[in-house]
Specification:
By secondary structure, the chain is α+β, with helices and mostly antiparallel strands. The protein contains 22 helices and 36 strands. The strands form eight sheets. It has an eight-stranded mixed beta sheet, with helices on both faces. The protein has a six-stranded antiparallel beta sheet with strand order 9-10-11-12-2-19. α4 runs antiparallel to α8 and α14 packs parallel to α15.
């Protein structure tokens, strides 16, 4: 029998209580500075959190920062460090940041702020643990201790590699990053990454689990600023790991700080440091300023580490190409986890029991024939070159080995086809000239880029209003260059999608032909099947779903800084959607076109009623469904909604034998069941072991159940991930894409017995196979995933909901105010 080993250990924070630490309180004058600066009687003008987070990223010895108002009101420990960092560094960085907040220089600050004294106090974790956040210091202490000595990584096949690890705070997470590895001069450097995080588990929140996540981080080696041009894309900040020689007095070891820079409209330089503290870092620790452009003009010089400055620019998706592909091999994951596990168990942490596979019942793995709601006629307008149109038509009407050797469209006449579906659906393919809608936006003509965007939207609406509209649904496939090919602000995709939406068309983009026959075919098939997904068509797997009632799936769709509560309903093969502010159930395609008419909410905060409105919305719909139907009502809900939206599904609140408390009637409703679905980094990484032999692991799929009643679903691999041997490693084959399926957590709530709980978990897993695009599983059940995919009809952005690069492409997004992870 297959068994799963989670990459996590049960840990008691008292294991570190005797470790010596140093803490610093914030000087009274600094606390008064924050307390004086207010926008009104109740709200501070400046937050303490950005300062603390940045100090922690610059000085990884700082394992905990108190960033909330307690440090201002109660004089609690502010910084906790494993070493007493030279106070002048902390002072100069903080004064520079405070001056920046007021938009003046340090000499202009109040005298008492400038004269403040910083004092480190020696203590132990046992003495101060009540005042500091164990979600920070426990993984921080584990990372610091792990990095104290070099480690030998066992990669199998008699290959062992000695590695030195460095403790780094990356995006506010404690990581151990290995010394960079460069296989040959043809390859970019990369590091192994071990990330520690303290988590609690749903239904047993008193049990502290230290998760161990393994991945890689790739670095830039190719020049990105050359001949007066910069090849870095805009959109997000880029991280760089920096070490200056001897950053701390008498400290022989290197210490790496995470700084960030971003692309800016060119003045004197192409890029700029993201924040004042990033820029101040150089003045304080390096003694002089440093231009971020230098890192892109000669990245190899700084990554070689021969000078005073060592810097590794993280090669995320802001740069084109990388000779080292994403992912990490199974032997590397296993070897790294064995290193971490051995170290932690020596400290007293406890291994978790292996989890058995319960997925004894198989499921249909066929996507075709496509399941459609009714007989109808569809038109697909293809805005493309003639070559692309001919290729699309040919590929869709030819049997394709990659999709079960079936034909998607059977030709009736030159432009008319019969869809490979369970009911009669005819599809007309129409070629349209793309030039008038796909040219870049005329941003040079307007100071405000939104004007150029609105002009394109109106142009599309005007153009299509002159075309005779058929009395059936029209979908659009648009050939267009990828994001990196456009000037900043000139990419027309968002305007195209909005313009087509206003004319009643769902849309999908496809990149131009490249000459790579296999790659071009894959993009064409996925683009067309994505269109069918958006329209609400299912794979044949929907006929194998074993649900004794109605399925409701609940999500909140993010659209910029606004949020839209949404519910999908699946009865047999009938899918419908309801959005907040719209009184009726709609088809999926109708919902996409009607999103502008819905009611968007602000992010939940103490001062608004977003969570109350959300709870009232979903409660009313659950009540209505129970009254409308006589069978079970099974509610699938995204675990992230416990963060501000619905506290009733938090880890401390849920109990497996009862549904979440929404009101008195529902908690006692015998026909109601919930399944909490979690695909965040709360869910540990894993390895699947065959026959209990610890040296034999596989990429098998299945549903695994632990003793707590928590289930972990591992889906099958898409075709693109196949063909890689289980013993392949990034170390030996850096140019191979090495990806592993993500485990998704299912927690059934309210089941009468263990058998029913098993059935609910298997149902959630089966629902991940209903989509047309992917040949195995999506991460979320289809009925939840389609709600997330609706966001592109508001934001215009195409997101990949099913790819997890395990740290490779990590770019920190700007966090929403007060939208924080609930540690409960």
């Amino acid at each position: 029998m297959k068994k799963m080993e989670l990459f996590a250990l049960e840990i008691d924070e008292t294991l570190f209580y005797n470790e010596t630490i140093y803490y610093m309180k914030m000087p009274e004058s600094w606390r008064n500075f924050f307390n004086r600066e207010r926008t009104d009687r109740f709200k501070l003008a400046f937050k303490v959190e950005p300062l603390g987070k940045k100090l922690k990223s610059i000085f990884p010895e700082i394992v905990s920062v108190c960033s909330n108002n307690k440090v201002l009101l109660d004089d609690q420990p502010w910084l906790v460090s494993t070493k007493p960092i030279h106070s002048s560094y902390i002072k100069h960085l903080t004064l520079g940041w405070l001056a920046h907040l007021k938009d003046y220089s340090i000499p202009d600050l109040p005298q008492d702020v400038k004269d403040s004294e910083l004092v480190w106090v020696s203590s132990t974790f046992g003495e101060v643990h009540k005042f500091i956040d164990n979600y920070q210091w426990v993984p921080g202490m584990a990372a610091v201790k792990f990095c104290q000595e070099s480690k030998f990584l066992d990669l199998g096949n008699e290959l062992r590699e000695e590695l030195k690890f460095y403790h780094v705070i990356f995006n506010d997470k404690h990581e151990c990053i290995s010394n960079p590895i460069r296989k040959s001069h043809r390859h970019d450097p990369f590091s192994y990454v071990i990330r520690f995080a303290l988590k609690t588990r749903g239904g047993n929140a008193d049990r502290a689990i230290l998760t161990v996540s393994l991945g890689t981080r790739r670095y830039l080696s190719d020049v990105q600023i050359k001949d007066g041009k910069c090849y870095m894309r805009s959109g997000h900040s880029c991280s760089v790991l920096v070490s200056v020689q001897n950053p701390y007095v008498m400290n022989p070891d290197r210490s790496f700080s995470q700084l960030k820079f971003e692309r800016r409209p060119r003045n004197s330089s192409f890029t700029a440091w993201e924040s004042a503290l990033d820029e101040l870092y150089w003045d304080v620790l390096n003694g002089e300023s440093f231009e971020s452009d230098s890192l892109l003009a000669n990245p190899k010089f700084y990554s070689d580490g021969d000078g005073e400055i060592t810097a590794y620019v993280v090669n995320n998706n802001l740069f084109a190409g990388n000779s080292v592909k994403a992912g990490i091999g199974l032997p590397e994951k296993s070897g790294l986890y064995n290193l971490a596990k051995g170290f932690l168990t020596d400290y007293g942490a406890r291994e978790l029991q292996l989890i058995p596979d319960i997925s004894l019942r198989g499921m249909n793995d066929n996507r075709f024939p496509i399941v459609v709601p009714k007989e109808e006629r569809l038109t697909i307008e293809i805005y493309s070159s003639p070559e692309m149109f001919d290729t699309v038509k040919m590929e869709l009407s030819t049997a394709q080995k990659s999709i079960e050797n079936v034909i998607i469209l059977n030709e009736i006449s030159d432009s008319n086809f019969r869809l490979n579906s369970d009911k009669e659906v005819t599809v007309e393919l129409v070629h349209c000239n793309p030039e008038s809608i796909t040219s870049e936006l005329e941003i040079h003509r307007y100071k405000d880029g939104s004007i150029a965007q609105e002009k394109r939207i109106n142009q599309i609406v005007k153009q299509l209003s002159k075309v005779e509209q058929p009395n059936h649904s029209v979908l659009a496939l648009v050939e267009i260059e990828e994001k990196g090919k456009w000037r900043d602000g000139a990419d027309p995709k968002k305007a195209i999608r909005e313009g087509l939406k206003r004319t009643g068309r769902l849309s999908q983009f496809i990149h131009p032909l490249t000459g790579d026959e296999k790659g071009d075919l894959s993009r064409i098939l996925n683009a067309v099947l994505d269109l069918f997904n958006d329209y609400g068509l299912f794979s044949d797997n929907v006929n194998k779903v074993n649900a004794s009632g109605t399925l409701l799936s609940i999500s909140v769709i993010k659209a910029g800084n606004k949020y839209l509560p949404a519910i999908s309903r699946l009865e047999g093969t009938d899918l419908s959607v309801k959005l907040l502010g719209n009184d009726r159930w709609m088809t999926l395609s109708e919902a996409a076109l009607k999103m502008d008419e819905s009611k968007f909410l602000d992010n939940p905060r103490r001062k608004n009623k977003s969570s109350e409105v959300f709870k009232a919305f979903i409660t009313a719909e659950i009540h209505s469904e129970l009254e409308r139907s006589s069978g079970q009502v099974i509610v699938l809900i995204n675990a992230t909604l416990r963060n501000g939206w619905l506290g009733a599904i938090g880890n401390t609140k849920i109990q497996c034998d009862r549904v979440p408390y929404l009101n008195e009637r529902l908690v006692n409703e015998p026909r109601l069941r919930f399944i909490r679905i979690n695909a965040t980094d709360d869910v540990p990484q894993y390895r699947i072991i065959i026959d209990d032999e610890m040296n034999r692991f596989t990429k098998a799929l299945g549903v695994f159940k632990d003793l707590e009643g928590i289930y972990y679903g591992v889906g099958g691999r898409p075709n693109a991930w196949k063909g890689i041997a289980n013993d392949a490693t990034k170390f030996s084959s850096p140019s191979k894409l090495l990806l592993q399926q993500r485990a998704v957590e299912y927690i059934p709530l309210g089941a009468e017995n263990e058998n029913e709980s098993d059935e609910l978990a298997l149902l959630a897993d089966h629902l991940r196979r209903l989509g047309l695009t992917y040949d195995k599983h999506t991460i979320f059940p289809y009925t939840m995933r389609v709600l997330s995919s609706l966001s592109k009809y508001i934001t215009g952005n195409e997101d990949d909901y099913d790819y997890d690069a395990e740290f490779d492409e990590e770019v920190e997004m700007d966090s929403e105010e007060d939208y924080v992870e609930v540690k409960s």
